[in-house]
Structures are given as structure tokens and as C-alpha cells.
Design brief:
Layout (H helix, E strand, L loop, with lengths): L7 H26 L6 H7 L4 H7 L7 H17 L7 H11 L1 H5 L15 H25 L7 H29 L5 H14 L6
Helix pairs in contact: 1-2, 4-5, 4-7, 5-7, 5-8, 7-8, 8-9
Length: 206
């Protein structure tokens, strides 16, 4: 009887599991040691694979940042589409980003909360492009929640998307600054707090 071989579905699942394990190991090590102090060998050991296996999936440790960024933004988009219909566009955008924060916390994107000097320029530029691309996508999603006849709806949608993502970037900058200054950080608290500040902007003082 011929030997059974693994179907493509099983092989792909195993590949995805290895990629996920590498990302999780990288995220954990980046958070513990910082990006610059973490080597490919460290990541491979943390994922219980060889360095050769690592390079089958990623060209470098910087490359770990980009795939996670794509997946993170996909999760935010999915969460946005699932928000209640009675959410305001700003509530939906902020809520979607908050809903995705649990995935973000275990992602190799945690490296972004460390001083920027630890991350090579190429990786930073790639992530910056991804944020810009997702800002355009989030703008389109917000626009779909606005009344079709609302004046300047496209501008309002762009402002909402920009502000929601800007608040998230402000959290990353604050985390980096506090870590640099040796101040204790509370990542889980800062994002909701940033969105609270955002909703307070322009509010009428009591």
C-alpha cells in the first residue's frame, strides 16, 4: 500500500502554525529584551525551531513586523464591521481598535513600543506605509456609516479615521517615551484612556 502523504490543507495549517509560533516568540522577546537585543537565533530558539527554519518564513527579524501589521489591520477592519449599528462612526473606529488590542499585545508589533532607534529604518518605513494604507481603508469604512447626503462626509470620515489611528500612535509614542525615561508603563490602560481623551476634544465644558 502506498504511503499516505499529508494533504495541502494540513501542510498549510502546519506552516501557519510555525509562522504564528515565530511571531509570538518574537513578540515576547521584543517586549522583554527590546528589538535590538533580540537575535534571530533567540527567536528561533523561543519557537523551538532552527535558524534555517526561521529563514524559510522570514528574511530577517524586521520582516516579522510587517506581516503582523497586515493581520492586525485586518482584525481591526473585521471588528469595525461587527460594531453595533447604533455606534457613532468615531465610537466604531475606536471600539474596533480596542477590540483588536488583545491580539496586538501578543504581536511582534510590540517592538514599536520600544525606542525607535532599535528598529531599522526600512522596517519603520514599511510600517508607516501600512498605517497610511490602512488609514485610507478605515476612512472608506467610516464613510459607509455616514449619511449619503451629509455635507463633506468624505472629509468627516477622513478626520475620524486619522484621529482614531493618531490616538493609537500617540499611545505607542507615550510607551516609548516612558520606557526611555524608566517610568512604569500600563499598556492595557493607555489605549482606552487615549480614546477617552479623543472623545473629550471639543466637548462643551460642564
Amino acid at each position: 500500500m502506498p504511503e499516505r502523504t499529508e494533504g495541502p490543507g494540513l501542510r498549510e495549517r502546519k506552516k501557519e502554525e510555525t509562522r504564528r509560533t515565530l511571531r509570538e516568540a518574537a513578540g515576547r522577546l521584543f517586549a522583554e529584551r527590546g528589538f535590538a537585543q533580540t537575535t534571530v537565533a533567540d527567536i528561533a530558539a523561543g519557537a523551538n525551531v532552527s535558524e534555517r527554519t526561521f529563514f524559510r518564513y522570514f528574511d530577517s527579524k524586521e520582516a516579522l513586523l510587517l506581516p503582523d501589521g497586515i493581520e492586525l489591520f485586518a482584525r481591526i477592519e473585521e471588528a469595525f464591521l461587527a460594531r453595533p449599528d447604533d455606534d457613532s462612526p468615531l465610537e466604531a473606529a475606536c471600539g474596533a481598535i480596542t477590540d483588536a488590542v488583545s491580539y496586538f499585545a501578543s504581536s511582534s508589533l510590540t517592538a514599536l513600543a520600544h525606542p525607535l532607534g532599535e528598529i531599522r529604518e526600512q522596517a519603520r518605513e514599511g510600517l508607516s506605509r501600512q498605517f497610511q494604507q490602512f488609514e485610507a481603508r478605515l476612512t472608506a469604512l467610516v464613510l459607509e456609516r455616514l449619511p449619503a447626503d451629509e455635507p463633506d462626509a468624505d472629509l468627516r470620515a477622513a478626520v475620524i479615521a486619522n484621529c482614531a489611528l493618531g490616538a493609537a500612535r500617540a499611545v505607542l509614542r507615550t510607551l516609548r517615551d516612558r520606557r526611555t525615561a524608566g517610568v512604569p508603563v500600563e499598556p492595557d490602560r493607555l489605549l482606552p484612556q487615549a480614546f477617552t481623551f479623543l472623545t473629550m476634544i471639543g466637548a462643551t465644558p460642564s
